[in-house]
Amino acid sequence: MAPAEVLPGTLEMLILRTLQRGPLHGYGIAQYLLQVSGQVLRVGEGSLYPALQRLLVNGWAEAEWGQSETGRRARFYSLTAAGKKRLQEEEKEFDRIVEAIRLVLRTV
Amino acid sequence: MAPAEVLPGTLEMLILRTLQRGPLHGYGIAQYLLQVSGQVLRVGEGSLYPALQRLLVNGWAEAEWGQSETGRRARFYSLTAAGKKRLQEEEKEFDRIVEAIRLVLRTV
DNA sequence: ATCCCATACCTCTATTATCGATGTATCTAA
DNA sequence: TTAGATACATCGATAATAGAGGTATGGGAT
Lengths: 108, 108
Description:
Largest interface: A-B, 31 and 31 residues
Number of strands of chain A: 3
Strand content of chain A: 5-15%
Shape of chain A: globular
Oligomer: homodimer
């Protein structure tokens, strides 16, 4: 099976969607995405942490240091109200574009 | 309606798919994508022409100068055998990743 | 006649996102 | 005691896109 990266431009949406389930730390987000996507979406750390920084800077998420399930120090991210709104917009736009692409792919 | 760009990483696939219908010039490709996608996929020239160059370099398309329907000089691109194969691979990978993303978006 | 718009090509630079490598540190299990 | 999993982060290279700029021609409207 191909290693397969994330579609550029969709990572923030995927992270926001993951955080919608509840606060989670970076490592956990990557694990979750890998698992739920059936091992397809492999988010490298070099993509993940900069993306999380962007979410903080834009006010879509906030972070708090705490303890992970395994007792280690971890930074828990959670959605802000602005982040929830942003997620809705991104999902809508994603659907719109994917539908447009499907139109092209289906048109003979 | 938002101006909405192309999903990064999908442009080459969209062009290849357009060329599968028959040879076409750059300007025509952009027009076609805009029309078939219901005005959603707006391909700027600064994205289009570099992408066409990549297709040539990779041997997925070949080009020939000719006359457009309106009598102007135009460069017609057409799919090679390698391009057809490449298109199939890209479509398959696209479906795979979009399906993975949908899994994430649908999971509660 | 002239001027604008659509058609048609292309390049350049800035911006942005992703990836892979690198580095730190801790905890657990073999 | 050592390897692997957990957990953070940054750095540089790569690549793709967008937007602006530049050339040229044809047709239709003023």
